[in-house]
Amino acid sequence: MNAPIFSERAVTALANFLENTSQVLPLKHEKEKFYAINILNIVDGFDKQKSKIKYFNSGKIMNIEEYFFHCDKIVNQHIFKIPERLKSTVFVSDVFVQAVKDHSLKGFIFKETGLTLSK
After folding, report:
1. How far is Cα 64 from Cα 55, in angstroms, rounded to an integer?
2. Is the pLDDT of residue 112 over 90?
3. Closest C-alpha among 94, 77, 95 to residue 39
């Protein structure tokens, strides 16, 4: 599992996003309180036809170069994973990103994925 790690301050600041979407699992650390965030919110809104995907010969997904999503499936989904990438990619909304900025949280890395919404 590839889970994001949040500080106690981040968990508190982002609690509204994590509630009902994630497990907040305490980690052992000598000085600080850190938590692994297990995203349970799996949204089946990935548009495979419009996305740029590289496949293995077996037909399994090797890499997704550009993500497209069905608008109606990801509305109000602020932190989620997709069935095609359960072990790796976590998606967040612009609202989530803005909350991180508003609370001056450090250590978050957001990457533009070429995410485009399709109808």
Report:
1. 9
2. no
3. 77
CB-count burial class (<10 Å; 0-12, 13-18, 19+) for 14: buried
More confident site: 114 or 40: 40
**Residue 73, helix vs strand vs coil:** helix
Number of structural domains found in the chain: 1
Tell me whether residue 37 is exposed, middle or buried, using C-beta atoms within 10 angstroms of its C-beta: 0 to 12, 13 to 18, 19 or more.
buried
Query: Can you give the pTM of this predicted structure?
Result: 0.86
CB neighbourhood size of 97 (10 A): 13
Q: What's residue 117's pLDDT?
A: 64
∠ CA 68-114-87 to the nearest 5 degrees?
70
Q: Looking at residue 72, what is its pLDDT?
A: 86
Q: What is the mean pLDDT of residues 78-93?
A: 90
Domain with 15, as residue range(s), is: 5-118
Q: Measuring CA to CA, how many Å separate 83 from each of 20, 33, 44, 59, 61?
A: 18, 30, 6, 15, 11
